[in-house]
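thread from #wetlab-drylab

HS: before we spend reagent money on co-crystallization trials with heme C, can we at least see a predicted complex? here's what I'd submit
DV: go for it
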Amino acid sequence: VGLRGGLATLAGCLALAACRKAEPPIYDVGRPAASSEIAAWDIDVNALGAGLPAGGGSVHDGEAYYGALCAACHGPRGEGTATGAQLIRPESATVPLRRNIATHWPYAPPLLDYIRRAMPPNRGQPLGADTLYAIVAYLLDANHISVANARVDSATLARVLMPARGRFVLDDRRGGRELR
Ligand code: HEC
């Protein structure tokens, strides 16, 4: 083989080894996620409204959507049923007061986030942004939470002041008791 041939073979092996190392093993399953697929999952909204989708909707439209999509489980007036939580604070003393949007939601944007991810639970795809804003507008209004011009949108939802805002404390404990 000779010295030069040996060096050439060695260089070839090294180059091949380097190439092999750079390439991840191929198992021939799956494929890279398309950016549109990642975007479809990347829908979280935070308490201050970051991540809200573009769009808006009215109390009026929301009432109709609520009746068609939500009332079956949450009750025609949001009073709750055996299957669905109470959403609207009951006006009648005969309906028992339970946890609802007025008593337990300190910020408005997570309401849209939650409904988009989870409601109606028997639906595979999230509702569209305008439908979601309309439903949220209706639920806020029905709870006597003030929404300007009887509608909410991506710019105004985070400004809605929820009655439960002062009922929660930031849990910044380090060790110590389980409950503050
Ligand atoms: C098939 C029955 C069903 C339908 C339809 C339905 N929900 Fe629900 N919803 C539930 C159940 C059950 C829960 C409680 C889930 C849990 O606690 O894990 C819930 C919880 C909720 C909550 C959280 C309540 C809280 O304070 O914890 C909200 C908000 C909500 N639903 C909104 C809606 C809206 C808006 C619609 C219509 C777009 C809707 N739901 C349609 C069954 C339903």
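DV: The pocket of heme C is lined by residues 69-70, 72-74, 83-85, 87, 99, 104, 111, 114-115, 119-122, 135 (CB under 6 Å).
HS: ok that's useful, forwarding to the group
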